[in-house]
From TrEMBL:
InterPro entries reported for this sequence: Calsequestrin, Calsequestrin_C, Calsequestrin_middle_dom, Calsequestrin_N, Thioredoxin-like_sf
Protein's name according to its UniProt entry: Calsequestrin
Signal sequence extent: 1-20
Keyword Signal attributed: yes
Single GO term (MF): calcium ion binding
SUPFAM superfamilies: Thioredoxin-like
Family: Belongs to the calsequestrin family.
UniProtKB keywords: Calcium, Glycoprotein, Muscle protein, Sarcoplasmic reticulum, Signal
Organism: Neolamprologus brichardi
Pfam families linked: Calsequestrin
Compartment list: Sarcoplasmic reticulum lumen
Length: 377
């Protein structure tokens, strides 16, 4: 896991309790230790005691005061989330990669700085921003059912608005259907990163042009879904199709899966677009970007990452200084995320950047795509 300590904010409330309104009292750390120091004597008990167990796998604590403070900040984030999630039966622990190397190997922990969530027989790596809010939201999503049922037109409209997400929807006879069961089993393999929906209503299926036991795959920002061939589908067939097609042509950098997105480069390359969705120029820029993605979604090696600076306000000054751009205007360019030795850099330390200001014309995008196809694909 890449370490972006600039992002690492505990999100703790420092407002005096007397100023808080009833119902808006943000959680404050109560000082109770809930995060376990996982060792050979307690890890089995911790796994059995909780419906989910979150383990932060970290390198040995260094002598550096700066690194020690960073470790303390991480621990404080975990303590606050552990406090908030205590009633949800979610446990938390920390595993030292040196001191607890044998346990880490038994549990399959590999990447220092990563958070691993143990749920039933699954191990899910948290690939998002390590803040209290983001981690808590991720865990709450994991507690939900892997498949959300759509039963009426109102729920269908909400589904249609989820253009930023990879999502699947299937039409099945009932919850007792063996084909729905296979769909549900596949959903568990990708929860919470990919959203699964199902309907048992003919009226909803008709609106979606779905036939019985058919499953549609929606790529982010695409207007039309792709029907997964060969219905009805087994769990293995669904998992294979999703794994093969899960890299979108255009995707948004989001706090909950930002590291997974950034590490999923094309031979060390990302096309990166900065645009504020709520800004008129940014909105127009983004709409053109969507058109380009839709017209070129057949190119498997094309991957564009959209970053809305409003989502990462603390990084705006850093990006502007590092990339020499004005993020109050839409920007797009090519980022090389590897150095000369091929080592992966984190987002805030990308070593090479060629960036151009956009005049919001289609010709610009055709030039960019020509460059990409010539030099990358």
């Amino acid at each position: 896991m890449l370490s972006l300590w600039l992002f690492l904010l505990p999100c703790i409330n420092f407002v005096p309790q007397a100023l808080s309104e009833k119902g808006l009292e943000l959680p404050q750390y109560d000082g109770k230790d809930r995060v376990l120091d996982i060792n050979d004597k307690n890890y089995k008990k911790a796994l059995k005691q909780h419906s989910m167990l979150c383990l932060f796998y970290h390198e040995p604590i260094a002598d550096s005061k700066e690194l020690q403070k960073q470790h303390q900040m991480t621990e404080l984030v975990l303590e606050l989330v552990a406090q908030v999630m205590e009633e949800k039966d979610i446990g938390f622990g920390m595993v030292d990669s040196h001191k607890d190397a044998k346990i880490a190997k038994k549990l399959g922990l590999e990447e220092e700085g990563s958070m691993y969530v143990f749920k039933a027989d699954r191990v899910i790596e948290f690939d998002g921003l390590l803040s209290a809010n983001t981690l808590a939201e991720f865990l709450l999503d994991l507690l939900e059912e892997p498949v959300e049922i759509i039963g009426n037109a109102l729920e269908l409209r909400a589904f249609d608005r989820m253009e930023e997400d990879i999502r699947l929807i299937g039409y099945f006879k009932s919850e007792e259907s063996e084909h729905y069961e296979a769909f549900k089993e596949a959903a568990e393999q990708f929860q919470p990163y990919i959203k699964f929906f199902a309907t048992f209503e003919k009226s909803v299926a008709k609106e979606l042009s779905l036939k019985l036991n058919e499953v549609d795959f929606y790529e982010p920002f695409m207007e039309e879904p792709v029907s997964i061939p060969g219905k009805p589908h087994s769990e293995e067939e669904l998992v294979e199709f999703i794994t093969e097609h899960r890299r979108p042509t255009l995707r948004k950098l989001r706090a909950e899966d930002m590291f997974e997105t950034w590490e999923d480069d094309i031979e060390g390359i990302h096309i990166v677009a900065f645009a504020e969705e709520e800004d008129p120029d940014g909105y127009e820029f983004l709409e053109i970007l969507k058109e380009v993605a839709r017209d070129n979604t057949h190119l498997p090696e094309l991957s564009i990452v959209w970053i809305d600076p409003d989502d990462f306000p603390l990084l705006i000054p850093y990006w502007e200084k590092t990339f020499k751009v004005d993020l109050f205007r839409p920007q797009i360019g090519v980022v090389n995320v590897t150095d000369e030795t091929g080592a992966t850099h984190d987002l805030s330390a990308a070593s090479h950047l060629d960036i151009w200001e956009s005049d919001l014309c289609v010709f610009f995008f055709s030039v960019l795509l020509s460059f990409f196809l010539t030099h990358i694909c």
